[in-house]
Design brief:
40% of the residues lie in helices and 20% in strands. By secondary structure, it is of the alpha/beta class. The protein folds into three domains: 7-85, Arc Repressor Mutant, subunit A (Orthogonal Bundle), CATH 1.10.10; 89-159 and 276-302, Periplasmic binding protein-like II (D-Maltodextrin-Binding Protein, domain 2); 161-272, Periplasmic binding protein-like II (D-Maltodextrin-Binding Protein, domain 2, 3-Layer(aba) Sandwich). The strands form two sheets. Strands 3, 4, 5, 6, 7, 8, 9, 10 and 11 form a nine-stranded mixed beta sheet that branches. A two-stranded antiparallel ribbon has the order 1-2. Strand 1 (52-53) and strand 2 (60-61) form a beta hairpin. It is elongated, with a radius of gyration of 24 Å. The mean pLDDT is 90.
Length: 303
């Protein structure tokens, strides 16, 4: 059998290659950046060629490094998976999951107690971010993508699809009125959640006004813009729940507030939303663990 380099050199390479940063790899491995750099130079000496292009910045993998990363990454995942199988009460092991900050905070986190009961001993590393992390490089094991159409960067299973409703906190409604005419809605304080400019079909107040006009409602020619714009969806929802204005909200993300009365639907005019997709690599060495998580999420979504 061909002699292998020391494990710590491979660990340093896998972490730095996945994160494209010696500093972040050092933080992950609880060592210094100098130690990471030293281990990688030893591995490069073993391989007989550079694995990273260090200049100009940012750090990039060479062709050899890009070829080596998936092999090392999958080997570590296979070892982790097998150790999890050998550990009593921990058949799933460690999984790294990314999703939007809003979905993580408002849908996933409140349900994790059920997952811990189903998979005792397992650990989830949850990355809440609106940045699309790369499944191919092993940054994460699973991505819950929020998209109009099925993602193409892996096996994609739709968990949920949302619709956007005009909602309000009871405190903002005078006399307990439930349904409000579109003109009155547009005259009240409103909160706008920021959407990427590239998403031309985003559920914005401008698109809702267009839908109201198309439904035959009369609306004055000049409509005041929303008084408050918040770019992070989770914080926008919190502002709406606090009574700072009416909002266009995903019925998936505000389901608890609609159920317990903290938010009320005030219009029948709705806008189409997006799908929440469970996405993973088909060739992932721990596919069984990923599919166990998928089955749990499907049950939660249909509950």
């Amino acid at each position: 059998m061909h002699r292998l380099p020391p494990l710590r050199e491979l660990q340093a390479f896998e972490s730095a290659a996945r994160l494209l940063s010696f500093r972040k790899a050092a933080e992950e491995l609880s060592v210094t950046p100098t130690a990471v750099s030293h281990q990688i130079r030893l591995l490069e000496r073993y391989c007989g060629q550079p694995l990273f292009q260090r200049q100009p910045r940012p750090l990039q993998l060479t062709t050899a490094g890009a070829q080596l990363l998936p092999v090392v990454r999958d080997a570590f995942l296979s070892i982790s998976d097998e150790l999890a199988r050998l550990t009593p009460g921990s058949p799933i092991g460690h999984l790294r999951v990314t999703t939007t900050s809003a979905f993580a905070a408002r849908w996933l986190l409140p349900r994790l107690e059920s997952w811990r009961a189903e998979a005792p001993g397992s650990t989830l590393d949850l990355v809440g971010t609106d940045t699309v992390l790369n499944l191919r490089t092993g940054e994460v094991d699973v991505a819950i993508r929020y998209a109009r159409r099925s993602p193409t960067d892996g096996v994609a299973v739709e968990l949920l699809r949302d619709t956007f409703h005009v909602v309000a906190a009871p405190s903002i409604l005078q006399g307990g009125v439930r349904m409000i005419e579109p003109q009155a809605i547009l005259d009240l304080p409103r909160v706008e959640v920021g959407w990427p400019l590239t998403d031309v079909g985003a559920p914005t107040w401008r698109h809702w006004e267009t839908a109201a006009r198309a439904a035959g409602y009369r609306i004055s020619g000049t409509v005041r813009p929303p008084q408050l714009k918040i770019h992070e969806e989770h914080h926008g929802i919190e502002a709406i729940v606090a009574g700072q204005g009416l909002g266009l909200c995903s019925d998936v993300l505000v389901a608890r507030e609609l159920r317990d009365g903290r938010l009320l639907r005030v219009s029948d005019i709705v806008l189409p939303g997006y799908g929440f997709y469970f996405v993973y690599r088909a060739e992932h060495p721990r596919r069984g663990a990923l599919e166990a998580l998928l089955r749990w999420m499907q049950r939660q979504a249909s509950a």
